[in-house]
Design goal:
By secondary structure, this protein is mainly α. It has a domain of about 90 residues. It has 13 helices and two strands. The protein starts with a helix and ends with a helix. It comes from Pirellula staleyi (strain ATCC 27377 / DSM 6068 / ICPB 4128).
Length: about 300
């Protein structure tokens, strides 16, 4: 059975294949221009890093471009990151990028890694476990995070290592639910957000613990987040839509069976309005630049809508 991320990659790849060839080619050209001399990808400032390289790998895989010389360049960059003490986000980016290289290009990133790298990575992640059953953002963190708990589960699934005491993880995720719908990122947060909500639903899906009592209010909450722009906003205090929130909300509503109530033409129009003529996407209407992260979200939105 494929992992959550493997299944999502295949799902998005089918949608991307239905997009116009010229549009797909412009995204490939954008990624090629963004590919740096060290083999990695970066944001709008700074050098190459695992976070942005992970998003670029995801888009390249969806576009059928993660093979041959581009894949070999990515491999060269990722090899420089093996054995490091990474954050949860970077650990997932490294493991998932390695998985995509294997799936798309037949490259075994870890053939030269230490024999116990899988278990060592799992132990590093487990060191972030907190008493409430969730996982903190980093070693210094005292509060469990809905988002980072989801990331740990994604990473463990790719490593093929089951999470310890999954019942306690489910209890933590359920404790993050807001009575009015949606989920909080940390217990101290004042309101729910669409991105921690997507993370919570994803985590419960991985653990096989998603129940109707959580699904129905979550659908209602997410549907309220669509704006006049056509996209979805991050929470009730933010008036404008963005691509990240739009992608995670649309994905979650599809998974919960609530996407039929979405104005999908408006979502598609919003996503396309952020696409640049030369390839790449901005993050929101106020944003004039582009990067590989938001370009993945834009591509992902259109892929979800293509079917």
């Amino acid at each position: 059975m494929p992992s959550y991320l493997e299944a999502l990659t295949l799902r998005l790849a089918h949608g991307v294949a239905a997009l116009p060839e010229g549009f797909r080619q412009r995204q490939i050209e954008f990624l090629d221009r963004s590919h740096r001399s060290d083999g990695g990808f970066g944001g709008r400032m700074g050098g190459s890093d695992l976070y942005y390289t992970g998003f670029a790998c995801r888009s390249m895989s969806l576009l059928g471009h993660l093979y041959g010389p581009p894949a070999e360049r990515v491999e060269a960059f990722l090899k420089t990151k093996l054995g490091g003490q990474e954050s949860i986000v970077d650990a997932l980016s490294l493991v998932y990028s390695g998985q995509l290289l294997a799936m798309s290009a037949g490259i075994d990133l870890y053939k030269s890694a230490q024999p116990n790298w899988r278990q060592a990575t799992a132990e590093l992640l487990e060191s972030l476990r907190r008493e409430d059953g969730g996982y903190a953002k980093g070693p210094e963190g005292t509060a469990s995070s809905t988002y980072h708990t989801f990331l740990v589960l994604l990473c463990l699934e790719l490593l093929e290592i089951p999470p310890r005491d999954p019942t306690r993880i489910v209890e933590f995720i359920r404790s993050q639910a807001d009575p009015e719908g949606g989920f909080h990122e940390i217990k101290a947060s004042k309101r729910a957000g669409v991105n921690p909500t997507a993370a919570a639903i994803g985590a419960l899906q991985i653990l096989g613990a998603l129940t109707p009592d959580l699904a129905e209010p979550t659908i209602d909450y997410l549907l309220e987040m669509q704006t006049d722009e056509g996209g979805f906003r991050a929470n009730t205090r933010i008036p404008i839509a963005d691509l990240l929130s739009t992608f995670t909300t649309l994905l979650t509503l599809q998974d919960l069976g609530g996407a039929n109530a979405v104005d999908t033409r408006a979502v598609q129009s919003f996503a396309l309005s952020l696409a640049h003529d030369e390839g790449g996407f901005s993050g929101a209407h106020w944003d004039t630049g582009s990067d590989v992260e938001y370009s993945f979200y834009g591509l992902g939105c259109l892929a979800l809508l293509a079917k």
